[in-house]
Input
Amino acid sequence: MNTVSGNITDNPKRTDFSEWFDALISTLRSYELQMETNTANAEIKKMFKTLISGDEDELYLQNKKLTQMHFVKKILLEYLENLGHKRPQKLAFDLDDNEVLVWAQIPESNEEEEDRLLLAEAKVNAKYHNKGYNLTTTIVEDSDKLVVPNHYITY
Output
């Protein structure tokens, strides 16, 4: 991209920026049409109502929720991928703000299974900690005779 003193200059060639900007405008026009024809889904309607109202707190809260959904989904998928096909006897998940909580029940004294769970946790945290998200695994054994806490969702 050609720049002069940090400003974009006239350039007859398409730049990454101009292509991105055209795509953004096109997407906004699509949303405009959806809003005008009342065919926008609930998320889009809520987003534009919030933008139009100028409620910055609500806008940032919506952004936080969308960001959280994005990263939590990626974390869960990557964690399960790291575990492979062999899963613990019981596996459940919960969310505490920016932390994914894992509840895993394994057979008594199964060090190999415990190591796999901790390695999967470490790999995910190595990738997502710098983005403000973490995963914490609670490992219990059969002999502990503990039930999955009610607020966890069993996988």
Observations:
- The helical segments are 16-36, 42-53, 56-83, 111-128.
- Residues 56-83 form the longest helix (28 residues).
